[in-house]
Each structure stands twice: as C-alpha cells, then as structure tokens.
Amino acid sequence: MTRLDTKDSLASLLAEIEYRNPAQPEFHQAAHEVLETLGPVLAVRPEYAEAGLIERLCEPERQIIFRVPWQDDRGRVHVNRGFRVEFNSALGPYKGGLRFHPSVNLGIIKFLGFEQVFKNALTGLGIGGGKGGSDFDPHGRSDAEVMRFCQSFMTELYRHIGEHTDVPAGDIGVGTREVGYLFGQYRRITNRWEAGVLTGKGPHWGGSLIRPEATGYGNVLFTEAMLRERGEDLEGQTAIVSGSGNVAIYTIEKLLALGANPLTCSDSGGYVIDEKGIDVGLLKQVKEVERGRISQYAERRGSSARFVPDGRVWEVPADIALPSATQNELDEKDAVTLIRNGVKAVSEGANMPTTPEAVHLLQQAGVAFGPGKAANAGGVAVSALEMAQNHSRTSWTATQVERELALIMCDIHTTCHETAERYGASGDYVTGANIAAFERVADAMLAQGVI
Ligand code: NDP
Ligand code: 2IT
User: Fold this and answer.
1) 326: CA distance to ligand 1 center in Å?
2) Domains of the chain, with CATH numbers?
3) Which atom of ligand 1 lies at the shortest distance from residue 351's CA?
4) Hey, which residues are catalytic here?
5) pLDDT tens digit sequence for 359-395
C-alpha cells in the first residue's frame, strides 16, 4: 500500500519503479512527474492507496513486443522491433498513437502510454490508454518501402487490436499515409470493414474532418484559455513553435487565425526564423506535399526567413512558446533563456517536451505552463470523435467537429484549473491535470475491483 503523502514514501515507490523497469529513464520521468503531485489527493482519499491503485497504474496491463521484418527496394532484408503497450483500459478501449522513429524503445513507448492514460481521462470521452510503434525510420524511405513495413507491422499487430479492444492512431512518423497502409492490411487479414480499429484515417474512408488539425488547434485553444485567465488573449502575441510536423503545422495555422504571430518552426537539423511570421501555406507545401525539410522553406520564402542550422529555437524572444517536436527538447537552460526574454506562457504540443527542472523554473517565474496531457489532448479527443462517427456510420462537418473540439479544450482547461484550486495549488495546471485525471481513472478502477 502506497500513501505517497511523505517524501520518503514517494522516494521508495520511485526507487521500486526504477528497479522493476531498468534502463527506462523516460518512463521513470513520466511516473515521477505524476506521482509527485498526488500527495494531496491520497491524503484525503485513503481508499485509493488501500486498493493498491498507484502500483496498478504504474504497471501496464499488457506489453507486446514483436519482430518486424521487411525488404527495402533493393531487396535487402531489415529487422525492426514493434511495440504495443496496452496500459490501462478502466475507462474504455486502449487508445493512443503509433510512433515510427529510430529512438523508439520499450521505455519510450511506456512513458507515452502512461501519459496517454491520464490525457485520455481528461477528455472525458471513455477511452483507455496505450501506445505503440517501432524503431523504423521512415525518413528517406520510398512509399513502397513504407507500405511494406506497415504491412509487416500490422501482420502481427492485427491480433491485438480491435474497435472495442485497442485503437491505434498516428504519432511521430505516422500520418494518414501510414494509417492507410496499416488499415488496408488489417482489412485484408481480418476480412472486416472495421473503421473504428484505427483513427487518423483519410476523410473518404472513415476519417474525421479536423483530426489532422486537432492537436495543434487544441493546444492553441488551451494556451488562449490560460492567457484569458490572466486577462490577456492571443491577438498580437509573438510565438515560437518547435517541430515542423503535424502538430507544429496546425499550431502555426491556428495561431495565425487568432491574430498571433508565429515566428519559428524547427526540425532535427535546426530552426527557421521568419520575421514576417511563418507562411503556413508554404510550410504545408514543403512538408506535407513534398515531404521536404524546413531549410527548403527558408530558401523559398525570401529575405524575411533564415535557417539556423543546429540552433535552439528557444533563443528567439517571444511572448509564447509551444514545444511541438519531441520529449525533453526544452531544458533548464532554455527555460532560463525564455524567462529572461519575458515569455508569458509555455504550452506543450509534444509529449513531455519540457524537462522537470525547466517546468519548475517556469512555474516559479510565474509563467503559465500547460502540461501536454491537458494541452495536446485535442488530437486524441478528435480521435474519439472519429470512433463515434465510425460506430454510428455518419460523418460530421468540419464545423461540428471543430465546435466539439473547442468545447472539450475549454472543459479540460476548466477541470485542470478548478482541480488545482481545490487542492491548494491555484494556477498550477500540472497538479490540476494530474489529480483530475487520476481521480477519474482511479474511481473507475476502484469500482471494477482488483484486476
Ligand atoms: P511528426 O512526425 O509529424 O513531426 C515530428 C516533428 O518533430 C518533425 O519536425 C521532426 O523533425 C521533429 N522531431 C521528432 N523527433 C525529433 C528529435 N528526436 N529531435 C528533434 N526533432 C525531432 O510528429 P507529430 O507532429 O505528430 O508529433 C510531434 C509531437 O507531438 C510528439 O511528441 C507527439 O508525441 C506529440 N503528439 C502528437 C499528436 C498527434 O496527433 N500527432 C497528439 C498529441 C501529441 P525531423 O523530421 O527532423 O525528425
Ligand atoms: O499523443 C497522442 O495523444 C497522440 N499521438 C494521438 C493519439 C490518438 O489516438 O489519436
């Protein structure tokens, strides 16, 4: 039984997690970040600890690891590793994306799955949490190679998923193209048109309008809600955005729509600064149509933009920072730079992009900080709306979906804000998000017995 209401009990639980899950630093970090905020709720609800809920929450229900062999265009055989971690299904079928990136390993997928459990609870939409992926690197691969990889990946994964069991979607390196190949192979193997088995599908074969936009749009709406709490809004604010993939592009698009000025985007090679504000049409052309690099954006944009190789985007002064690339991309030093440059809000489009030290510095400096499990929940929320459309064999208009997304983001903001206040941590969205999500999952687990 873990109470977590003293520093000693937290330290011993974390030591146990590290011992049982060796060499998984990102998972340790994600667990630590949640557990260190739960003391106040465990103090008033001893039944949670008595039911062993913390231990159960930190242990995935099921972890699947499999071989993914495939042949490249020259006939060479490659062997990648596939993962699906089905973390918690107390609130609904496992739900969460697939990541294809060379850095993927079990610890990365577990951190993402753990975060997803809490994020999905915050949406209020009846989805459990899971995550999967592979150490496959799609960069520089032909369409045919990506297709063969996806088909091989699904040839094992299909037996573990289903519309009522586990519903994957995209994440880094997995977009509509990959979901298409995965869905095709699932349909072929199972002989079922089971649209709700994957989300992030194309709009003409079961996908939801606004799903591509949802994560980025949602994070901007969450940022706006945090600013409004402080009597400000987005109009006229400058913003720095990292990344140049799905989340970053639609973050930039929504910032522009709401009158803010996004100055940057980035990739693993460096960042672009555009004094006139990022031209989202050109960015989409380079990244989504041509599958190019942002250095090409700078070459084509003219004198307002330049590419800074290997630079850190956080050195560009701005009012708002929206990390939208990957984990631990914004560290303590970057936080010091942001604070010195007068940043007002930092909101996480990516999963765990801010290191714990950086989060503490930003919060101490009074910067509004939106944790990913709340701020980037718009993506998975619209995935759940896609599942609802699939189940009822209907499709909603873009306006309908966008209206729902706005309501959900507003509700998540209010929930986090009010929960923080209730537990004496006013303005601390990290504590608010963790406790509110924990209460929802924990209550469902309590009701469903020791399983
Ligand atoms: P994409 O694959 O579309 O884009 C990823 C972007 O991040 C690229 O610009 C990529 O640059 C950059 N990037 C990835 N890994 C690294 C790295 N190790 N170092 C530097 N740059 C890196 O992914 P998404 O936009 O979908 O995902 C971005 C983040 O948002 C991830 O943390 C993801 O988990 C999170 N997220 C995504 C959601 C979604 O719906 N897609 C929902 C909620 C969160 P390069 O091309 O050079 O690798
Ligand atoms: O991190 C995330 O929330 C996602 N990659 C989206 C998951 C989903 O199921 O839409």
Assistant:
1) 5
2) 1-59+427-451 (1.10.285.10), 62-193 (3.40.50.10860), 212-370 (3.40.50.720)
3) 32
4) 131
5) 999 999 999 999 999 999 999 999 999 999 999 999 9
